[in-house]
TrEMBL record:
Residues 1-21 form the signal peptide. Keywords: Signal. This is Peptidase S41-like protein. SUPFAM superfamilies: ClpP/crotonase. Gene3D superfamilies: 2-enoyl-CoA Hydratase, Chain A, domain 1 (3.90.226.10), 3.30.750.44. GO terms for cellular component: outer membrane-bounded periplasmic space. It comes from Flavobacterium endophyticum. Pfam families: Peptidase_S41 (PF03572).
Amino acid sequence: MKKMIALSLLLLVSLDGYSQADSIKNYVTEALGVMKQYSVNKHRLDWDKLYRTAYDSVKKCKTLRETYPSLVQALHSLEDSHSNFAVPEMVAQYSQRYDFPKAKDSLIAGKYAYITIPPIGNFNKEDWKEYVGLVYEKAARLDKADPEAWIIDLRDNDGGMFHPMYAAIQPFLDKKKVVGDIDPQGKTRYFSYSGGKVFYDGKLDHVFENRLVKLKTASRPIFILTSKKTSSSGEFTAVSFVGQKNVRLVGKNTQGLTSANTEYKLSDGAMLILTVGNLVDRNKKEYKVIGEGITPDILVKGNELQEYVNEIETYLKAKK
């Protein structure tokens, strides 16, 4: 009887061990499957090797959390310089409200309407609504001053969530399909905006309750300020204006994280933030070289706002 009990206990421990190992392998397989299906570099990778490396690295793992470093390493193996991993606690924080950078505005020299489009890095829809509303409010107030030109500052926009940025710049854009991405199969997927609704590849992605403001002076010259810090969604925002007749980019080459990320939630609440395509502009130009960035129309040597304004004024005088 004692031997049978001991054998039964041993069997239960053994089965539990197999179950645990299966659970861990299934979890890693789940994550690798997402990467293999959607990664922008999916056609350039040795997936058999990547799977073997990942499985070998989690053999001694006892919990799903212990697999996280292996998943991060797998993401690094994708070589896109943009994919990331978020633990469940971080994912939960993304949905919370936080004190995001607020848009700033001023009337420079009494004639240039200046407004910033700052970064915003969470999924909270109330924050998104507030972000967009602040930009609309400031833009409407500046429009009443009858400015000669607009200056939209993206120098400190190092990325985050593109949807609120895209909604915020709608009063200044001249057409709907101005920015998107191209997937590994070569399909171009554009964002568009209509009646507060953001569409991606023709499918509804988000609805903003903010009422779009109409600016009387939106057709006047618009200057988009960029810096080496301008990155990711900040670069998507900048490219939204590339090719628009009354717009010029001013500053320095952007950082060059010109790729699109999509979030995929795993079974334990962790999240893969996966690069799934490269940025394209309204003319279907693809920005696929990591680190190359977006080259402005007007280069600025310094970093101070006044140096940017000086270059803008030189340009405007030459156009008269």
